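no rush on this but wanted to send it before i forget. theres a chain ive been looking at and ive put its sequence and its fold in C-alpha cell form underneath. please have a look and point out which stretches look like helix strand or loop to you. thanks a lot i owe you, the record is right below:
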Amino acid sequence: MRRFSLMLTAGAALVAAPVCAQKTSQAEAAPAVARFSAVDKAFADFRAKTPVPGMAYGVLIDGNLAHVRFLGEQDEKAKEPVNAETRFRIASMSKVFTALAILSLRDQGMLRLDDLAEQHVPEMRNWSYPTSDSPRIRVRDLLSHVGGLVTDDPWGDRQQPVSAAEFTKMIAAGVPWSRPPQTQMEYSNFGYALLGRIVTNASGVPFDRYIQQTIMQPLGMTKSGYEFRDVPLGNRAIGYRWENERWVEEPTMAHGEFGAMGGVYVTADDYAKWLSFLLSAWPPRDGPETGPVKRSTVRELSQGLNFISTRKRIGGPEKDECIWGQAYAMGLFAIRDCTLGLTLSHGGGFPGYGSYMVVAPERRAAMFVLTNRTYSGPSEPVWRALLAIDGQGMIPPEKRTVTPILQKMQAAAFAAYAAGNLTPLNGKLAMNFLMDRSADNWSAELVKIRQQIGNCTSAEPLFTTGALSTAYRWNCERGHLNGQILLAPTNPPTIQAWRLMPIPN
C-alpha cells in the first residue's frame, strides 16, 4: 500500500507542461540568462567554494543543448580563456564508452557478457583466486565492478601511460584480492583497463581506435579522442592542482592501456552530442535505428548486478528528505531519484581534471560540467542545478503511453462504480478476481464509497505504470476517487486487481 500511495501522489503531482524544442513556451521566451539563472548560480557558488582555473558546463533539455557556458582559463600561464574549442580530459566518465564498446561487440557476436574474462585475456588464466569456491571473473563482473578487485583511486589514475606490453606483464603477474568476485561492488580502474584489453582482443584493433571509429566518429565527436598530447596547446585545458596556495601544473600523461578507464578528452559540444545520443535511447519505441549502437543496447547500460546502496540525495533543497537507491550499472551509476526518476551519473577525477554528468533519460534531460582542477568533485552543482530547473517546470515530464486496453478497462470500471456492481465488468475479470473477493462484497464496497464521495463525473488522464497497469483519479461530487487497475498476463488481458481509495473533500 505504501508503494501504491506514493505512486498516486506522484501521479497527482506530474502536471507540468512539456518543454519542446519546436514550440515556444513562456520559459523559452525569457532571456537565456534569466531562464538559466539557477544553473549559473549553482556553478558560481561552487567556484566560490572550490576555485577552478577553468570550467565548461552545459544543460540538455529534450535532448538538445539548451545552455552552455565557458568560464575561467584553460591555461593559467597564457591566460587563455576556456572556449568552445577547449578540450578537457573527463577521466572516469570515459568508462561508459568502454562499456558500450563491450556491449556492441556482444551484439556482433564477438563475445558474451557471461564469458569468463580469461577467455579474452589469456594472461588471467593462471590467476589464483582468494577462496576455493570463488567464481572466476566474468566480463559482466568487470562492467559492474564486482570482480573482487580492490578500489584503486588514485593509483589507477597514474597508470594512464602504461603500455600494452607493460600491461600484459601486469596482468600475468596476478592480483591481490580485496574479496571473492560477485560478493560486493568495489570500484576498480584496473577492471576497466581489463575491459579495454577485451575490446582490443575481441575486435582485433586497439580499444581506443575501435571506440573512436565505431562510436565517436558516427556521432560527430570529431574533437574528442584519447591521446591528449596530440591536441594543440592552444586547444587544451591544462590540468592543475592547488598546492601551497598556488596553481601547480600537472604533467600531461600519455595515452596508454588504462585509457579504457579514464583516457577520453572532449569539448563541451562533443560531450553534449554524446549525452544526446544516450538520451535518444529512451523511451523504447518502434522505428529505425539511427545511432552507432542499438537503442536497446544503450538502455542496457542502466542495468547493474543488484548490489544496491542508499544515500541522501546530493544537491537537494534544504530539509530534502529524498533518499536514493543506487547501484553501479555499466560505466554509470543508476540512481532512482525521487523527482527525476531514473538517472544515470558518473564523475571523473584525474590529475589535473574533475568532471561530472547526470542523464535523466525518462525526462529527456542531462547536465554536465568539465573543469581543469585535480579531483574538483563538481557533483553538487550539477544535481542542484538540474533539480532547480526541474522545479521551475523547464524539464519535460515523463512521456507515458496509455494503451487502448487500459482506456477500455478504466471505462468499464467507471461504469461499474456508477452501477454499484460488477456487471459492466463481465468478461473482463481475471479468474482470480472473484475468488479473492465476492461480487456481493464488491457491491457493498461500491455503495459505501458512493455514500462518501457521491457520483464520479469525470476522469483525469491516466498515470500509467506500464502497458498493463495504471493509476487513475476520478473527480466526484464530494471528493476524488484514486486507485489502480492491474491487468493479468492473459490473452486478451483481464483485470486481476482493482483498487479504490476515496478522498472526501
Notes: The mean pLDDT is 93.
